[in-house]
Amino acid sequence: MAAVTALSAAQARLQQPTMAELAAKRVSTGTRSNRQSKRYSVTALYVSMSTAEHDLDVDDALARAQKRLRDLKAKISDQSKKNFLLERDVRYLDSRIALLIQNKIALEEAEVTSRLDESDLQDGTILEHRKVDSYGNLFFLLQTEPRYIATLCRLISIAEIDSFLQTVMFTIYGNQYEQREEHLLLTMFQSVLASQFEAATEFSSLLRANTPVSRMMTTYTRRGPGQSYLKSVLSEQINDLSGHLDLDLEINPLKAYDQVYAMALKRANGNVDLVDMQKSVSAEDAAANAEVLETIRPRLSTLVTVANSVLTKIIDSLDSVPYGIRWICKQIRSLTRRKYPSTEDSAVCTLIGAFFFLRFINPAIVTPHSYMLVDSLPADNPRRTLTLIAKMLQGVANKSTYSKEPYMASVSAFVDGNKARMNKFLNDLCDVPDFYETLELDQYVALSKKDITLSITINEIYSMHALLQQHVSMLAPDKSSHLSVILRDVGPPPALLPRSENFTIQLPLFSRFEAQIEDLGAALDITQADVLFMEAKSLLIQIIRSLPSSRLVSARPLDLHSIASVAAATPKDPVLAKKGIRALGLLKELTGQNILQDMTVDNNPLAEEIEEELAQLGSIREKVLGEVQSLESVLRTIKDHNEYLHSQLETYKSYLRNVRIQSGPKKSSVNDRVGLVAIHGKGRKEPKTQYLGPYKYSQQALQKEGVIIVCNVPQNRVNNLYFYISSPTPGTFVVSLNYKGRIRGLLELNLKLDDLLEMMGNGVEVLDLEYVVVNVPGMLEFLQRQFSRRRW
Question: What is the model's pTM?
C-alpha cells in the first residue's frame, strides 16, 4: 500500500498545484524499471500517508476503520497526558502528607489542599497574534531540531523534570502514534544517550542513577505503545497470580522463620513457654533452621516455575515490543561498543537489560495497579511474589550475584540457567532498522505543510520559554542562531498563570527560516514519469474504492479507461466526476509520453500494480480492525486508571477533612463542616481563611529562639534589624526582613511548611538569607508554636 495515496495526498496536504504540473518542468529520463526504482525509493513518504486520512471523499470499510483508528490514537495521547498530570499530583500529595505525618504536625497547617482542586484544562485563547507567531516558530524549531531538548534535559534539575517531561513527551511529541514525531523524539533520545555515555566515568554507573535522563527514558515507556505492550504480555499472568491470595512464596529465611514461629505459637495456644524456638534469631541462624529450610524448599520450586513462565512470555513477545523501545536498546548497544570497544557482549547486555527490565518491565510487575494491569492493589502474598519475580528477572538481566540480599542466592540456578537466552533476547531487541531516510522525507512534507498545530497549554509555553531563556547561553551561544533570534523576538518569559486561566490553545507551527518547498517532486528527485504514474495509480484506486458495486471494478483485468469514464460521467457526485476527468487526462498523458505506450486491457502495468494494491486492502483492513480492537482496550484501561487516580485524590480529600475535624477545637467543628461542604458543593462560598499577622520580631529575639544562628549585619546596626512574619493561609508564611528607616524591606521570603519539612528530610538544616543564616528545624518549630496557637 506504499503508493496508494501517492501524489494526490501530497496535493491535499500542500494545497499546491498538481504534482504532475510541477514535475512537468523536469526532463523525463530512464527506463520503466528505473522509474519504478525511483518510485519505490520514496516509499517511506507514502507509507506515512494514510489513505483514509487524506482521501477524505472515500468512504469504504477501510477508510472508516482507519478514521476510527486515528480517533483512538488521538484520544489515547490526550488521556495519557491527563493521567501523567494526575500521577504527578498524587505523588506530590503523597510525599507531602507523609512528611506531615512523620513530623506529627496537624494537617490543617499544611497548604496541600490547594493541589486537590484539579479540573480538566479548558480550551481558549489568550495570546496576542504576534506572540502566537513567535511561539509557533519556537516550538516548530524545538520539535524539528531535537538537539535543543536533548541539551535541556542535561541542564535542568530533578525538581524541574516532571513539568519538562510533560511538555516534551505529551505535547511537543504528544502524538504517540505519528511516525514523524516518534522519529524526532527518538533522535532526541539518541543525542541524550550519546551525551550520557560521553560524560560517564565508570561503566557500572551508566543508566542506573536517578537523573533527568533516566526519568525521561522511564516516562517514554509509559506512553501508549508501551502501555499496550505491557498489558498484552503481563496482564493475564499477573491477574492469575493475584487471584491466588493464599499462595505464599516467601523465600527470605528471616521472614520464613517468623512465619514458622507464629505457627508454633498458634499451636501452643499463645503460650510462649511451650514454643521450642527463640522469637528472634540472626539471618544465618534462620537460614540454618531445618523447619525453615523445609518450608522454603517447595516455595522456591514454585517461584522458579512462575518466574520462568513470565520470562518465557516476555521473550516470546519480541515482535510485539514497540519499535521505539527496541531502537533505544539498539542505541545503548551501539554507544556501549563505541565507548568501551573491549567490553564483552554479556556486559553490554547488562546495560540493555538495565533499560528494558529496570526501567520498563519490572516497575510494571512490582506495581501492576499503577500500570493498569490489574484493577486494584494486589494482596500481600501476590505482591511479595511479584517483587521476587522482578528481582529474579533483574538478576538475569544484570548477571547479579545478590550480594546485598544473600537469600536471593537460592535462585542462582534460575539466573545461570537463563543467561544465554536472556542475552539472545536482549541482542534481538536491538535488531531493528533505522529511520533516518524516512525522517528526512517526512521533514520535507513538514516544511511544506501549512496546517501543523500543537495542542498546548499557556503555562507549558511559558515554562519552556523560561527554561530556554535560562540556559540560552549553553543552548545557542551563537547570537545569530535561529533559537537566539526567536528568543530575542519573543521577549522575556511571562509569569505562570493561575490554573483557572491556563487555557489549552492550538498553536500553529511553521518555520520562518526554511523556504517552503513548492515542488515536492523535485525535492525528492522524482521524475515526471514517476509523478504521472503514481498520481494516476492513486486516483484510480480512489475511484475504484468509491465504485464498489460496479461490474467494471470486479472484472479482471481492470479496464482503467472505462472505470475513469464511468466516474467522469457521474453527475450526482461532482467530486468523483472530477477525479474521473483527471484520471482520463492522466491516462492520456501517460500514453502520449510512451510511458504506457503498448497499453491494452490485457497488458497494462498500471492496472497490474493497482490490482496488487487492491488485493492488499482486505488484509490491511483486517489489520486495522485488529489494531482498533487492541487500542480500544488500551483506551478503556487508561480511562479506568484515570478514574483510579481521581479516586486517590478523593481519598486524600477525605483524609484531610477527617484530620482537620479531629485536630481542631470543638468550637470550630461547625466551620469545618461548612468548609467540607464547600469542597464538593458547586456554587457555594468557601469560608474565608484567617490571615494572621504580620507580627514583629527583633533579630535578638529570633536568635534567642534558635531561629537565627548567624547574623551578617555589623554589630552596631543589629538593633535596627527586625522581621515581620505573617501567615496568609495555613502552612504558608511570609517572612520580611526590614531595617529601621528604610521604606522597603531588605528581602521577602515565602516559606511553606511542607517545603521546610522536605529540607529537613533531605538533611538541609540551614537556610542562607544573605543577611542572616536561619536554622531550618528552629524556624519550623518557632513558626508552628507561634501560629498554631493563634489560628483558632
Answer: 0.62
pLDDT in tens, 352-405: 998 999 889 999 999 898 788 888 788 889 999 999 999 999 999 887 655 567
What 8-state DSSP symbol labels residue 222? T
- Residues 380, 246: contact at Cβ < 8 Å? no
CB atoms within 10 A of CB 688: 6
Q: Which three cell numbers stand for residue 180?
A: 514523524
Nearby residues of 674 by Cβ (< 8 Å), 6 or more positions away: 687
Least Cα distance to 692 among 650, 638, 730 occurs for 730
Query: Per residue in 261-306, pLDDT tens?
Result: 888 888 888 888 887 888 888 888 888 999 999 999 999 999 999 9
- Sign of dihedral through CA atoms 422, 427, 430, 432? negative
CA 98 to each of CA 102, 256, 497: distance values in angstroms, whole numbers, following the listed order: 6, 30, 29
Q: Where are the domains of the chain?
A: 6-64+528-619, 222-429, 692-791
Q: Is the dihedral of CA 116, 121, 125, 128 positive or negative?
A: positive
Which secondary-structure segment (H or E) carries 729?
strand 721-729
Q: How far apart are CA 96 and CA 94, in angstroms?
A: 6
Q: How far apart are CA 538 and CA 419, in angstroms?
A: 51
Q: What band does 15 get if pLDDT is binned at 50, 70 and 90?
A: very low
Pick the closest to residue 238 from 390, 396, 360, 425 (CA basis).
390
Average pLDDT, the chain: 75
Conformation bin of residue 734: beta by default, left when phi > 0, alpha when psi is -120 to 50: beta
Specify the CATH number of the domain 222-429: 1.10.506.10
Question: SS3 breakdown of the chain: % helix, strand, coil, rounded to 5?
Answer: 65, 5, 30
Distance CA 752, CA 742 (A): 27
In DSSP terms, which residues pair with 729 in a beta bridge? 732
The amino acid that residue 7 corresponds to is L
Beta bridge partners of 632: none
Sign of CA dihedral 729, 732, 736, 737: positive
